[in-house]
Amino acid sequence: MVRSLSQWTKTLSFPARISPNRNSKDCNVNVLPITPPPAPPRNKSTTSTSTSSTMSSSSSPSSSSSSPTPPPNVPITEISQIIYPDPESEKAIMGSLVFCIHHKQGCKWSDELRKLKAHLNTCKHDAIQCPNKCGSQIPRVMMTDHLAFTCILRRAICEFCNVEFTGIGLEEHAGTCSSEPIYCESKCGTRVLRGRMSIHRAKDCAKRLRRCPHCAREFSADTLAVHGATCPRSPVPCPQRCDAGPFARADLDAHLRDECKALTVPCTFKEAGCRFKGPRHLLEAHLETNTSAHLSLMVALSGRQGQQINMLKSAMAKLSTNYTGTLLWKISDWSVKMQEAKTKDGLELVSPPFYTSQYGYKLQASMFLNGNGPGEGTHVSVYIKVLPGEYDALLKWPFSHSVTFTLFEQGTLGSGGGGQGGVAESFVPDPSWENFQRPSTEPDALGFGFPRFVSHELLNRRPFVRDDTVFLRVKVDPSKIVAV
Ligand SMILES: [Zn+2]
Ligand SMILES: [Zn+2]
Ligand SMILES: [Zn+2]
Ligand SMILES: [Zn+2]
Ligand SMILES: [Zn+2]
Ligand SMILES: [Zn+2]
Ligand SMILES: [Zn+2]
């Protein structure tokens, strides 16, 4: 490494103590000291401290008398002028103490200027040409790194395939080396050599897509087995080990329910009480050989059901029983019933039973359309009967509530007629009358009422019958002696 002295001196720096002596009258130099310090002891080590101590004394004025000086009053502006002013000066200059030009980079070297060149040949901060001739100038201290890592012409071996490259070649090779292990792109978590990735993804990768052979849906390879355990189309054998099958899992229930010959099934007449249970293929034989037994079971069943129906009926009747003490009896198909009454002697129409209150007397109205007794053939007769009721044992006897019958005229409301028209009759039972004693459970108890309640003639004249229907109200009132 060769440099001209002028090159060095441009970058020279000096220890502070040997900076140009501004007090010297002989010296105009403002760049370099013209007074060389006494040479440091040659045989001593030139540590900075010893140099400094030497130099501290070098600034004494006495030393200037023996030193060469440049011609007075000549400004020195060029380094060349001071490098070679004359042999004497040069000697002095070359003997001046300087720091290494790489002082700022951290080189601690300091010595006479003349030794600088030699130092720079070994200074670890001085840049030299890269031995690979890559064209870079690299400080010696960085060269090892440069050669190992950054020189584009360094020799470098790929750590994966062991092929040798130049530095720049290796950079191009990086990221493409087929021997480098890399993580699978499908995120299965496996590391595979780059060159084997396509084979891995096609054949080994747990995340590759695979089609279920039974239902044809796609699953990742690692979940296919789990799916297989529940796939509705995967074939499974009949759990009853019958001859049929295997069946698609989704069809198994239907097979067991409808077909499987090995499945144990109850007799068809189980609800009737047959206890038989056996494989389905034996059921037919059982049915054939037990026809009469099954029939008996069915008869018994229908008997039980009949009783249940009756219980339900009476429960229903109880729910619909009238406990208000007032019966509004609607008699439809009036003309047919009237015709019938005229042809059949003593034909009596009876109303639904009703109670005078929730725990009261049980009553029933009855009607002879063609009359009865004194009204026979000319009048409609109405009667009330006391029926055996559930609470008779707790009631007062004889029955003594007043009873009012009202036969309504229809369509007269709101016609300005001043209210509901009709025929009304009341009575208060006489305690001596047989009819109002506590009734026995015998049927056909006698009634009490009005044989000439309303004449056929009035019935036809006034609007009692509308839409072939007649309304009769029967009202029982315990508080009134006579009610109308
Ligand atoms: Zn140095
Ligand atoms: Zn290089
Ligand atoms: Zn490689
Ligand atoms: Zn993978
Ligand atoms: Zn499937
Ligand atoms: Zn089966
Ligand atoms: Zn059976």
Automatic annotation (TrEMBL):
Recorded coiled-coil stretches: none
Keyword Disulfide bond part of the UniProt annotation: no
Segments of skewed composition (Low complexity): 45-67
Boundaries of every TRAF-type domain copy: 118-171, 173-224, 226-284
GO molecular function, one term: tumor necrosis factor receptor binding
Keyword flag S-adenosyl-L-methionine: no
InterPro entries (alphabetical): MATH/TRAF_dom (IPR002083), TNF_rcpt-assoc_TRAF_met (IPR012227), TRAF-like (IPR008974), TRAF1-6_MATH_dom (IPR049342), Znf_RING/FYVE/PHD (IPR013083), Znf_TRAF (IPR001293)
Location relative to the cell: Cytoplasm
Origin superkingdom: Eukaryota
PROSITE patterns listed in its UniProt record: MATH, ZF_TRAF
Extent of the signal sequence: none
Cellular component annotations (GO), alphabetically ordered: cytoplasm
Gene Ontology biological process: regulation of apoptotic process; regulation of canonical NF-kappaB signal transduction; signal transduction
Principal cellular location given in the protein's record: cytoplasm
Zinc finger (TRAF-type): 118-171, 173-224, 226-284
Keywords attached to this entry: Cytoplasm, Metal-binding, Repeat, Zinc, Zinc-finger
Region Disordered: start-end pairs: 16-77
The MATH domain, residue ranges: 324-476
Pfam annotation, one family: TRAF-mep_MATH
Protein name listed in UniProt: TNF receptor-associated factor 4
